[in-house]
């Protein structure tokens, strides 16, 4: 399974997806976060929430693109979901493959060795950014949004970030429940 | 051998400064400026800015070499394309190593500028920047 996922994502990356200059991408996201911080008066809890909301809206759309390009079927287990998210999803949109650790049927962690969003970034040293801001929180939202569209309600959050001085950048995803198939999202 | 390094923004505002000694010839990296000189360092560098502004239009190099001197101390300058000036006050002539030092500092500075939370002309408070500058000073000066 994992072998074929790799060939699939290699092929996708080479032939199918549109690419953009990484510095443009990094700087665009960077100015977005910096502007959010200014607009919200450096209330980082709110900045995190906004980033997550943005990511959520991205995720809802991105998952369609994902399926259109990959033709992957439904995952049988949550473990498989973790593999697909890391090896195909992240590869396709960010060209990085995070390590999947601590997998079981209810949760998994993604450890990002490189984070294209956070290149060049140094958090402001105002004493609280290091404790409160999750700079790449948009990813949390993307995962939530995308997985919700495939009937997986998850709770995702960062547990560590190299920007804060941690050793690794780790994103934890916990399965809350498998949503019922019949109810379309947002139609309750 | 002692050095005083300063980065000057486009509005003649200092954005970073560092006093450092050499590690060469069994130096330990502490600056050995005489006390009366220590207080004068920023002034000497500041007064040299006028000369930088004159010289920078006369050639198209970024590294302007030694542009001013003050009782045996020399001031070397480097102007980035964005008109931020790197100034180095030193007591020994070492054109080539200072040139390399400036070029690498410029690389560091560009990386700093790419950080979304750093604003142009703002003073640089980042600890990692400071550490890297010290490493470069150790390597080249």
TrEMBL record, chain A:
Cross-referenced SUPFAM superfamilies: Ligand-binding domain in the NO signalling and Golgi transport (SSF111126)
One GO term describing the cellular component: Golgi apparatus
Keywords, alphabetical: Endoplasmic reticulum, ER-Golgi transport, Golgi apparatus, Transport
A GO biological-process term: macroautophagy
Pfam family, one: TRAPP
Location in or out of the cell: Endoplasmic reticulum; Golgi apparatus, cis-Golgi network
Organism domain of life: Eukaryota
Main localization (coarse): endoplasmic reticulum
Xref: InterPro entries: Bet3, NO_sig/Golgi_transp_ligand-bd, TRAPP_component
Family recorded in the similarity comment: Belongs to the TRAPP small subunits family. BET3 subfamily.
Protein name as catalogued: Trafficking protein particle complex subunit BET3
From TrEMBL, chain B:
SUPFAM superfamilies, A to Z: SNARE-like (SSF64356)
InterPro entries from the UniProt entry: Longin-like_dom_sf (IPR011012), Sedlin (IPR006722)
Biological process annotations from GO: endoplasmic reticulum to Golgi vesicle-mediated transport
CDD domains tied to this protein: TRAPPC2_sedlin
Pfam families xrefs: Sedlin_N
GO-annotated cellular components: cytoplasm
PANTHER family with a match to the protein in the record: TRAFFICKING PROTEIN PARTICLE COMPLEX SUBUNIT 2
Protein name per Swiss-Prot or TrEMBL: Trafficking protein particle complex subunit
């Amino acid at each position: 399974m994992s072998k074929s996922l790799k060939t699939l994502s290699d092929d996708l990356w080479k032939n199918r997806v549109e690419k953009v200059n990484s510095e443009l991408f990094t700087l665009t996201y960077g100015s977005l976060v910096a502007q959010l911080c200014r607009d919200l008066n450096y209330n980082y809890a709110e900045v995190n929430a906004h980033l997550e909301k943005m990511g959520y809206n991205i995720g809802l759309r991105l998952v369609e693109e994902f399926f259109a390009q990959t033709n992957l079927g439904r995952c049988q287990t949550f473990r498989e979901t973790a593999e697909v998210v890391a090896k195909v999803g992240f590869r396709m949109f960010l060209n990085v493959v995070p390590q999947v650790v601590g997998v079981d049927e209810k949760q998994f962690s993604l450890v990002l060795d490189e984070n294209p969003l956070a290149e060049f970034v140094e958090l402001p040293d105002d004493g609280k950014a290091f404790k409160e801001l999750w700079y790449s929180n948009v990813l949390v939202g993307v995962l939530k949004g995308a997985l919700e569209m495939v009937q997986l309600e998850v709770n995702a959050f960062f547990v560590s970030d190299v920007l804060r001085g941690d050793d690794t950048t780790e994103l934890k995803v916990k399965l809350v429940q498998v949503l019922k198939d019949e109810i379309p999202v947002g139609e309750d | 051998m002692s050095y005083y390094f300063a980065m000057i923004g486009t509005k003649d505002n200092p954005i970073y400064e560092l006093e450092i000694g050499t590690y060469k010839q069994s130096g330990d990296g502490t600056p050995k400026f005489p006390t009366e000189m220590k207080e004068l360092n920023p002034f000497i560098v500041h007064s040299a800015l006028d000369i930088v502004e004159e010289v920078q239009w006369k050639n198209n190099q970024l590294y302007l070499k030694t542009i001013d001197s003050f009782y045996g101390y020399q001031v070397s300058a480097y102007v980035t394309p964005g008109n931020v000036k790197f100034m180095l006050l030193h007591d020994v002539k070492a054109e080539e190593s200072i040139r390399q030092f400036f070029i690498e500092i410029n690389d560091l500075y560009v990386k700093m500028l790419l950080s979304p939370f750093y604003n142009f002309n703002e003073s640089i408070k980042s600890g990692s920047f400071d550490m890297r500058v010290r490493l470069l000073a150790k390597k080249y000066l």
